[in-house]
Design brief:
Layout lengths: L27 H22 L5 H10 L3 H11 L5 H11 L10 H15 L3 H14 L5 H21 L4 H44 L1 H9 L6
């Protein structure tokens, strides 16, 4: 290829040669599957890792129980190292984002491939990170893209935890935890209400002791009437 009118770039500077770039092979169904699992596993991951249990966490676990094996199989399929072809596909798709006009598209694609491959992302992290960058960034930025891929990788690590244990046992533990949590909340509310009642009573007694004459007038209806 021509490189800004200066001939071919030195081969040693490119880890991914343009003549060897594979054809894009990451099909749309893979991207759709990654998006669907991201939506499905997000609430489930929150339920698994939540310190304070909410009703929504229990509901997420209950919904997931019948689908656990299916979700696990689907997740394992995309939680695999991204192939060179998949990296190239996402790199090509990213080059349609606005970039400086003097940047050679083919060289940019090679550079993207080099940087992405250094991260060794899974299919999920690659696809969801690239999608996030296209959605959130106005211009193509390699550093921002890599951060998005890393964030997707951290999310994937939490999703793996979902399938490490027994969801049925986890649900039982979370239900017990929520029951205990509600019992504690009820006890705290009872104590708080009791303290407020004592405070009101004490203030009433102090007020009555300091202003007996006014209190008597109020009771007789001589003060405060219309």
């Amino acid at each position: 290829m021509n490189y800004s009118g200066r001939g071919d770039p030195p081969k040693e500077k490119s880890l991914v040669k343009s003549s060897a770039l594979p054809a894009p092979t990451t099909a749309h169904p893979v991207r759709a599957e990654c998006a669907q699992l991201d939506d499905a596993l997000g609430p489930l991951s929150r339920a698994v890792h939540a310190f304070k249990v909410e009703d929504a966490d229990l509901e997420a676990l209950r919904r997931a129980l019948p689908m656990r094996d299916n979700l696990c199989a689907r997740w394992r399929a995309i939680d695999q190292p991204a192939t060179r072809e998949q990296v190239a596909t996402e790199a090509v798709r990213l080059t349609v984002m606005p970039v400086a006009s003097n940047i050679d598209t083919e060289l940019l694609t090679e550079t993207l491939c080099e940087h992405i491959e250094e991260l060794r992302p899974t299919v999920f992290a690659l696809v969801r990170g690239a999608a996030a960058h296209r959605r959130n960034a106005e211009f193509l930025s390699i550093s921002k893209l890599l951060r998005e891929i890393e964030r997707a990788g951290w999310r994937a690590a939490r999703y793996r935890d979902v399938f490490e244990g027994d969801l049925s046992a986890l649900l039982a533990d979370k239900e017990e935890g929520l029951a205990y949590q509600r019992k504690c909340d009820a006890e705290r509310k009872r104590r708080r209400d009791e303290e407020q009642r004592k405070l009101v009573k004490r203030l009433q007694e102090e007020w009555a002791a300091e202003m007996p004459e006014l209190l008597g007038l109020v009771k007789e209806g001589k003060v405060g009437g219309g």
